[in-house]
Design a protein that fits this description.
12 helices; alpha/beta; 315 residues; binds zinc ion
């Protein structure tokens, strides 16, 4: 089945028009409701900073962004809509859930949760007609926990009913993807509709190839990232390209424009800027030259954030 349209926050987007697509970013990260109720936490002129960040990205050639912020990470659909409208960057919004599963969810069934996710895909988010374009589930160092499994099954069922694809926050150093794919297979999901994110937090090429052999795409979506250097991440990408998997890779940054500004952050805004002055252009400005240096051909580089994302959404 070729699904030629994807839900963007400004309406249906033809997959041919997605262009250069970053498959895992966050315009804003906070907590559910925080952006509306406690705007002071986000610092001065938040919308102005978002627009500036996205305009720079657009001028640098970024056409489309998947915003991976779920409700528990503070998703604000009005912010995403305004950001897209004012900058011309296509934004695809996410339904599903990250790791902050509230206590009051205990006892909810996978089907009940699937229904609320499905509503955001078919009808709209937060009382708008803006529809989610991708589903997300998340499992980290603890693996697929009992509540995490219910969420994953809910995401699988909403996917099976809607046809929109799935992104998985994963913990690749612990090979958590194996557990996640087992649950999705049990639900009858075709794994070529699944993207395993944060896959470049490991350099275990054998593990990464085994995931793609199951059918799934890889989100190489931490740049510059922590614990693994950007150059090591790029070496892993090069190894996967050499093995013939370029079309299954989705490089991205997991980059945040707006975050809650705490008094004593482990990493200050200045340090963040020093580490990555390129924002959403780090891949174009730093990673692509690294790949050129390593001998990857220009056509493959130019297709890297284009072909994989398009194929993934078209299924
Ligand atoms: Zn993320």
């Amino acid at each position: 089945m070729v699904m030629a349209k994807v839900n963007s926050v400004c309406g249906p987007l033809d997959t041919d028009d997605m262009g250069f697509t970053l498959m895992h970013e966050h315009i804003m990260v906070g907590a559910a409701g925080a952006y509306v109720d406690y705007p002071a936490f986000f610092g001065p002129d938040p919308m102005g900073r978002v627009v500036e960040g996205l305009r720079k990205s657009k001028e640098g050639g970024v056409d489309t962004i998947v915003d991976a912020t779920t409700l528990d990470l503070g998703r604000d659909i009005h912010l995403l809509y305004e950001a897209s409208r004012q900058t011309g960057v296509n934004i695809i919004a996410t339904t599903g859930w990250w790791l902050e599963i509230p206590r009051f969810f205990t006892g909810l069934s996978a089907d009940q949760l699937a229904d609320v996710f499905l509503r955001e895909i078919e009808h709209g988010i937060s009382g708008t007609t803006i529809k989610a374009g991708i589903l997300k589930a998340a499992h980290d160092i603890d693996g697929v926990t009992p509540m995490g499994e219910i969420m994953l099954r809910a995401v699988a069922r909403a996917h099976l009913k809607s046809g929109i694809p799935i992104m998985l926050h994963s913990y690749s150093p612990g090979r958590v993807g194996v557990q996640q794919l087992a649950v999705l297979k049990d639900e009858g999901v075709n794994l070529n509709r699944v993207k395993m994110d944060h896959s470049n937090d490991t350099m275990d090429v054998e593990y990464l190839v085994s995931l793609m052999e199951e059918g799934c795409y890889l989100g190489l979506d931490r740049y510059p990232g922590m614990n693994v250097s950007p150059l090591s991440r790029t070496k892993t990408m090069k190894a996967l390209i050499d093995l013939g998997y370029a079309d299954r890779l989705c490089p991205s940054h997991d980059g945040i424009i707006l975050r809650i500004l705490v008094a004593n952050p482990a990493v200050t805004e200045e340090e963040r800027l020093l580490k990555n002055p390129h924002g959403y252009l780090f891949i174009k400005n730093v990673v692509f030259p690294q790949l050129r240096e390593m001998g990857v051909s220009e056509p493959i580089i130019q297709d890297l954030c284009v072909k994989g994302p398009k194929k993934f959404f078209e299924g």
